[in-house]
Amino acid sequence: MENLASLFVKAIFVENAVFTFFLGMCSFLAVSKKLKTAFGLGLAVVFVMVLTTPLNYIILKYMLGAGALAWIHPSLADVDLTFLSFILFISTIAGAVQLVEMAIEKFAPALYSALGIFLPLITVNCSILGASLFMQEREYNMAETTVFSLGTGIGFFLAIVLLAAIRERLQYSKIPPALQGLGIAMIVTGLMAMAFLSFSGIKL
Amino acid sequence: MAEVLEEVKKEPLFSKKNLQVIKDPLDDTNPISVQVLGICSALAVTVQVKPAFIMSLGVLFVSAFSNLIISLMRKGIPGRVRIIVQLIVVATLVTIVDQVLKAYMFDISKQLAVFVGLIITNCIIMGRLEAFALGQKPWPSFLDGIGNGLGYGLILVTVAVFRELFGAGKILGFNIIPQWAYDHGYVNNGLMVLPPAALFLIGTYIWIQRSRNTKLINVS
Prior knowledge:
The structure holds two protein chains of two kinds. By secondary structure, chain A is mainly α.
């Protein structure tokens, strides 16, 4: 039962989803060309993550784990359905993203058209499924899951906004043609990852 | 006027067009360095060659067979549930890979940890399903899955060879750097074992690839 505050700070800085575990890299590299879209995508990822990870925890605890189905009928106490976790996790995420998409379309149509295709692409953002899988692997309880997912989402948001800010400035630099675009983005991300390594010495 | 009915020629299994589908992702349309897909796992599992190799085999299997299955089903999938159907097919295949790994290669499965599950969200698989399998016939789709798996594996194993060789002095567990080098003061490069090295290596690979293949400059 880790201290919740230290778990939160660890999820944002020490074990940042993007710079330590490389989750969500595809949308991270593809959307970070403009600061505004990066900002919107980051917020959407935080929201979906905090929505789906606790939901997946509930599914894991009351439906899939070993002995989880005992609340329906005692004879089901030795049923272990953990192998179905991938399928159920990704279905929850797909459903949640669909709901978020419909809600944004109704209540904030300007944001909806600004995000465009990237909203449905959140479904396959590895960081969201990754957060659920880490939650399963590390056997967090509900409070830890909520704090962890909030921290991971904010970590992703921080990373993508930082890289977008840098890439917008890079437009004015003289970079060799073969390195422009994806190449220099990778190298800059590597330097940022090295910077974030400095957090690993923090004792919380 | 007599109409000549032309026989629809069946394309041979390994015709030039089909072979191109396998060869393109190795260089021109490489999923990692050109299409910007599948980056997450390419960075995370390349610390040693063996997990990188097993991971590429896993992605190749899932990509080829999910392409095949979705291509066979393509005429019957309603538009609105397209993504969910794709995700369920891919998730099932990944569950199979995960269970096989846990059964026969438990130590590698522990090393790969959550990244086997993350093959589901590996953008290569979803990207190729949307871009290719939904509109093409089963056999070319299967070959496209194999081609992209090979392109992915090429980068993974290349990066892993560098990282393991310079970070630990070994490849596949076999000592490559001889003991006398260590005795004379050679030290393993600690940065190679850390995540940023993978980013630098792939960035360098992209630089070299785009210098040689100039039509790829600024494509992504």
